[in-house]
């Protein structure tokens, strides 16, 4: 290889580097700014949670002085009864996720694997439900929940209002449409020959669904489970409107009890918020591999 060839190749590499340098620099700048916008409030909350209220009251929140410890975390964990409200959130979140994914996968299986004339209208109906703002349903749902009876072993008040069943039902109703749309599109990518072979072997519809299609949807189900856990666990609106008993409230609405009319300890609220966010981080870490694979489904051919 001559020196002229080496020089030409080096010049070509430099030209390519210059040609892609500006877009790549802009992309990295955008990613840095976006990450900073998301991480700075979290870092500020962590910093505030490590400072006693007396120090921030004296020096201000935008300051570097005083002591740093975990007193706020131990205070809210014991005095705010966070373990009890964590358990309440799990009572609402886990059944809501299970019912949502079961119903959504069942509807998605029908509209994507079976040939019926109402497949498209059903899918449109489920998607249209997501376009309705939940805020406009607050008043009618409140009055409806006061009129629907429930057995006393499911509700202390005898109605759907102020019960776990009511909160679970409203989450399932609002989340099923989105999950149905995602799962239906994913199931359409599964070869139909699997169903045909299963029918030839005498497999019923339920066997095809639970034994063949549903296991193949594990990446999509994991991605949806992660999203649903984040959305349902972090819900604040429905628990405030449709539940009055403080002992039944999920963890997000229980945080409002840390502030009063005349005094707000922002340091303790910051510590409680960090503790509340830990379960969502744990769920994402555990399902990260499936979540990323679910998001990248269909990104490449072959």
Protein architecture, described:
- It is a single chain.
- The chain is mainly alpha-helical and 302 residues long.
- The protein folds into two domains: 3-49; 82-295, Orthogonal Bundle (MetI-like fold).
- The protein has helices at residues 3-49, 53-59, 71-79, 82-113, 119-130, 138-147, 164-187, 193-200, 205-216, 218-233, 237-242, 251-254, 266-286, 288-295.
- α3 crosses α13 (266-286), α4 (82-113) runs antiparallel to α5 and α7 (164-187) runs antiparallel to α10.
- The longest helix is centred in the first third of the chain and has 47 residues, at 3-49.
- The radius of gyration is 26 Å and the shape is flat.
Whole-number tally of structural domains = 2
Major beta sheet, specifics? none
Category from helices, strands and their pairing = mainly alpha
Net shape = flat
Task: Tell me the name of the CATH class of the largest domain.
Answer: Mainly Alpha
Element string (H = helix, E = strand): HHHHHHHHHHHHHH
Topology, number of strands:
0
Number of helices: 14
CATH architecture of the largest domain: Orthogonal Bundle
Uncertain runs:
298-302
Attribute tags:
single chain, 302 residues, mainly alpha, MetI-like fold, 2 domains
What are the SSEs and their pairings?
Layout: H1 3-49, H2 53-59, H3 71-79, H4 82-113, H5 119-130, H6 138-147, H7 164-187, H8 193-200, H9 205-216, H10 218-233, H11 237-242, H12 251-254, H13 266-286, H14 288-295
Helix pairs in contact: 1-13, 3-13, 4-5, 4-7, 4-10, 5-7, 7-10, 8-9, 10-14
